[in-house]
Structures are given as structure tokens and as C-alpha cells.
Amino acid sequence: MSRIRTDLHFENCSADNFEDINTLLELYLDELDSWQREVDNIRIMHHDVWKGSRLSPLIKQHRAGSRVEKQTRILPTGGQTDVDYMFEVTGIEVRCNEHQGSIYFKSCACQDPGSRKSNMCNTYGRIYVCKSYKLFLESHDVYAKIFADALSFDEKEDAFLLIPAKFKENVVKNCGLDYQRNEILSSPISPSISGQGALNEYDGVPCLKLSSWPQVAMIWVNRQKESGLCFHGEWKSEIAQRAPLFLVPTGNPMDDEQHLQFRLSFSMVEIACFEQISPPMRKMFGIVKYLFKAMFSGSNLLSSYHVKTLMLWKIDQIPLDDWETMKTTDFIKGMMSEIRQTLRTSNIPHFFVENCNIFPVHKVTEQNVLEYTTIFQNLPQRLKENVGMLLSQDLNIPHSEMCLNLSAIKLQDVHKTRLDAYISGYLTRLLSVITFSITENYTVSCQMGEDSVKEMKRIFANYDNDRHISRIIPMVNSNIRRLKLCPKLIRSRVSFESNSSSKDKMSRLVHEAFEAYTNEDRLVAKDYIRKADSLRQSPDTTEGIGISVTKHHKCLHNDKPILNIIHFLENENNGRCPRFYLAPELLLQHMKMQLQMSSLIINAAALQEEIGKLHTIVEKLSLKEPYLGRLSYRFAGVYLLKGYRRFVCDEQLPVRVPIPLDEFDQRRFATNFNLR
Question: What domain range is 10 assigned to?
Fold first, then answer.
């Protein structure tokens, strides 16, 4: 396809058009970024726990993408991103083409510089397996499932060619990640297999690790060694030593043989880059990426990865000191100018590989170029409108009333009223994955349960100074005690008692009560319930760190409402029950009712009164915490009331169970201060 050229122009960007919103925008970015940094350790620890408990022992999970890169993540209202995973087949290292061995990679470096496919060929190639190594792979239980039917003999090479599509499908089948795959598993266009889990959409990218960085990548290490830049030479050298490069199953879209090719992946290096950047860089990239998605979402030409690449080039060119004084609106205009220039030249240089153009020339059409041209007309006004829309939605301010003073007040209010719930939501989900992992392993064998506890101790030791993470340690220990797994419990340098709010104390007591309740230790459960009940009148005990219920709570044979929740969720999720979360105050009331249910059944008026209390609690629960939408505290409460309705119906009791309206448009009500 011949390159389509067009003139793209900015209108003059006057202060009246855009720059007047700079101060407000920077206040917003500062607040949002501070929230996301507040839960950094919680998110990282969640991944550490999850990856060690869910996957095949020979397939290692790496989180990738914006969820783990230290960007200031900004999404359109109600928007969400996929959870990106790299699935590395461990124990296998692919040699570069100059070192043929058991398994090796041969680059497609093009001999014809004028070829239409030459612009990206430096990053693509084929993977071959020697005859003797093929026998080894087929003799191994796990490797055989991945490679046995994915190898095709190549007479010219006298080795077996690894077929990307089949390799991709086999790895995802055996990775242990529980999600519903899309129907088309093998596409040469994308290295990933997408699908829907109980909570999130996933993109899983199978990969193989290179034994060393190839020469085409080492050029980046030696480029621009100035100490005044973020990515200075010493840091790059260190990254080249510790950050792996992967090969992922996707081919050059301009090559007729793309279905036989793999591509170099720098995902782990990109994560390291974003860990290195300064707060101003982080926040500026966040808003530029948001604006790009908001304004250009209708075009399929450029992607956010192209914008990321342009950003990395900016970071590699602008001295550190200059970022501290740069106005956000000036940077936005500069980046938009860069995007315009890439369209004029059809060129975006690969950040890590020299002489490699990642501009999607094969996607260029008259239509999508026209779409960009239209958007770049009157660009300052479009930028201002999109920023204004973002601020008004996240701060709940009518666009027409937006002003600096009002918005600053709104930001202070959001910080005061929502930050604690935001942190507690992340802690609830971290606690859930920890206790689920321990219990899941314990159901296999006591030894696996013990090993799981040892792993948790190791992980907790990495965060023993984190004041937030320390809040869940008493709850984890309660779970360990119930399962009788280990006499030595998890410790923290941070004192729980000295740093506990009434909300945390109540959460801990309800967790203890629920563990005893699950263990059918009624006397102990009643004692903790009595202590927790004494704290209910405190003004800060609403919601707090929640208690998760999972498939393992099917053991609560006599708790019909809980069993009904599990049943409802299994019906909605193809037989799988996701972890769901009960607010401490709600669970407290539920357990009180269940422990006296024998007397309540014969006293309809008393049962009606207790259900009324339950309904009152449900009505005030959040639709956004600890997980936005149908796994929120409110929805768990609605499910619980539905469970009680089924129970009184089955028992033919003359009791009415009111159900609050449970319709919830997640995308409408989400904001970036609820971002998960």
C-alpha cells in the first residue's frame, strides 16, 4: 500500500482556549496520582500472592501493561482496561540466531531494504527446535502438552519449526488461569488470547525467554549515556542484566508468512522504564494517553502503544530538570504535535530497536486519515472540552460551573471522604486472595496448606513496614489458626493495636467471628460477635475491610442464605463462583441472625424485625466498594437478602423480605477515584 499523506494543522492555541485550565488539571493529576501510589504495594503484593498460587509450576506469570506500569492511569468514565499477563514457559531459554542450539531464534532481517515489509523485520523471526531437543520436550509431561503438536519439520533448516498459533493455544490451555477464552483461539494478528474472567477481562500472551539480549536490542543500552536523562547509561546497563526479553507468537503484518513468526517483546523492560520515571512524567503521560483515547477512539490506526513509544522517546530526550518546570498543557500540545508528525511521515521509530518503524502503514486508509485530520482541526478547543468533561465527571461538577476554587474544594472533599474506602477496597481484595489461596491449597493436602502459609510469610516479609498491609495480618492469622496449619503466625513491624481505627477493630472482630462460625465453633463466634457489636455505634465503622465468601464456604450447610448467594453467582458465571465480599456490619448482623435462627423461625415478628435491620444496612452499602459493580458490598447485600427470601419461602414463613433496587450501570457511575 502506498503511503497516504495529508496536511494536519493546529489552530493557534491561545491561553484563552486551553492553558487557563492548567492549574486545575495539575491539581487533579496530583490527587489522582497520590491515590494510585498509596496502593502500589497492595497491588504488587496481590500479584505476588496470586501468581504463586494459581498457575502451572512450569508456566510463570508476569503482569504487564498499564496496570503494573507506574503510570497515572486515567480512564473514561466507567472504562476499564484488560488485565495483561505474560505466560512464560519456564526452563526453556531460546538462543539468538547466531548461536544455534537446542532451541533458537532466527531473525527475519530483510535483505531487500526496499521491501514493503522491511520496516519492522528486525523484531520478527522464527523459532526452531533441534531434533534431539524435540525428543526431550516430548518426554516431559508439561512440555509435551505445549510443544508436541506445535512443531513442524523444516527440511531447509533441518530442524522443527515452532508454529505460533498452536504454541499460543497450548500455553493458555495449560497456564492455570481460569477465564473463558474467546472462540477464536489462534489468530496470527495478535500475540494474546483474550477472554473473560469472573471479575476482569484478560489478555494472556504466551512467551519464551531469550537466553540473552540480541545485538539489535543492545544498541539501546549504548544510546545516549548522558547522566542528566532519566534513562541514563548506567541504569540501562543494569536493566539489560536483570530484565528478560521474550518472544511472543505474532508475525510481521506486512509479511505473507506472518503466521510462522514470533516477535521480540520488551514488556518487562517497559515496566522497568515506568518504574524509573519521575512523578511529572508519570502524570503527563497519564493525561496524554487519556486524551488520545478519548479523542481518537473512533480510529483503528494508531494505538495507545504508539503513544507510549512517543512518550518514551520524549523521556529519553528531555533533561530531568526540565520536567519539573514544564506546564502540563504545554506538554499535551507538544505530544499532539508529535502524533500529527507521525501521521505526516508514517514513521514511529521503535524505542529499543534501531532502524525499526512501528507505524502501522498496513492500516492506513483514506478514511482513518480523514478522521485524524478532522480531530486536529480546532484541536485546542477539543482538548479543553475533553479535559473539562473528565474533571466534571470525576469531581461531580456541572461543566458549566467548573472553576478553580470549586474544583479544589471538591478535590479536598473527595480526599477526605473517599480515600480510606479506596484503600480498604484494595485491602479487602488482597486479603481475599490470600485466604482463598491458603484454603485452596489446604483442600488438596495439609502439606500444601503449610507450604502456602510459608509462601505468605515470605511475601509479607517484603512489606512488613507497610502501614496499610499490616492492617490485614490479624485476619490472615485468624484464617491460619482455623485451618490449624502453623503454630507460628505472620508478624509485622507495625503494631496493629496502636494504629487501629474503630473500623479496623470491628473488621478484625467480624473476621475472627466468621472464621469461628465457619469452623462451627458457636461459642467463640458469639463472643467475637458481642465484642464487634459493641463497636457498631462508632461513626467510622461503616464498611471497612470486608470478608470474602468463596466456593469453600459451601461447607456452611446450615447457612441457607450464604449457600443461595453461591448458587446465584455460579448460575451467572458458568458454574464458577467468584470471590465476593460482605461488609463487616452486614455479616455481623447475618451471623447474629443465623446463630439464633432456631428461635427466630418460631417467632415471625422477631425474624421480620431482624430482616428489617439487615435491609437497612444493605440500603446504605456502597455500589463501588470494594469492587465496582456486581461484586460491590451493595450487590452482595442484595444477593444475601434474595437468599433470605428463598429461605423464608422454602420454610413457608409469614415473613416479607424487601429487596432494594439492584440495577447498576457500572460504566455510568464509575470514576477514576474508583479505578480498579
Answer: 1-38+277-402
